[in-house]
Amino acid sequence: MSKPISVPYETTIHVRDTCLCLAVQRAARALARRFDEALRPYDLTNGQFSLLMSLNRPSPPNLSSVASLLAMDRTTLTAALKPLERRGLISVAVDPQDKRSRRMALTPAGMQLLSLVLPIWKDSHGRLEGLLTGGEHDQLLNGLKKLL
């Protein structure tokens, strides 16, 4: 009979305490909960806020550029767009230069909602920045950017 395979519990503790991926995932979930709670009165999630903000551009972006900015695959982005489109917050149209491509834009209702929730985001973000001292915000942001 073969010996059962096991991983020592100490290894689990080591991974818990040193794994960058786990730490970033945990922090991302905690941050998402904070922003979701702040945006809940407007029936908006932090992901939807980021998506709306990513469409706030001088000219309507295509799906690929938004997916790249948000680090999402195109299928996931397409699914995320649907509720916002149903709410009349965004429009998705065929790109006049390339019929295979789609361009997305904020509607007036989307721009109005974005302008209403932006002060809430600023307040929430400011409180989070207040938890970080001595340049930690910039260090964290710069460190995360290196991983992209």
From TrEMBL:
It holds the Pfam family MarR. Gene3D superfamilies: Winged helix-like DNA-binding domain superfamily/Winged helix DNA-binding domain. One of its GO terms (molecular function) is DNA-binding transcription factor activity. InterPro entries: HTH_MarR-typ (IPR000835), MarR/SlyA-like (IPR039422), WH-like_DNA-bd_sf (IPR036388), WH_DNA-bd_sf (IPR036390). Residues 17-148 form the HTH marR-type domain. It comes from the Bacteria. GO terms for biological process: response to stress. SUPFAM superfamilies: Winged helix' DNA-binding domain. This is MarR family transcriptional regulator. It comes from Phyllobacterium endophyticum.
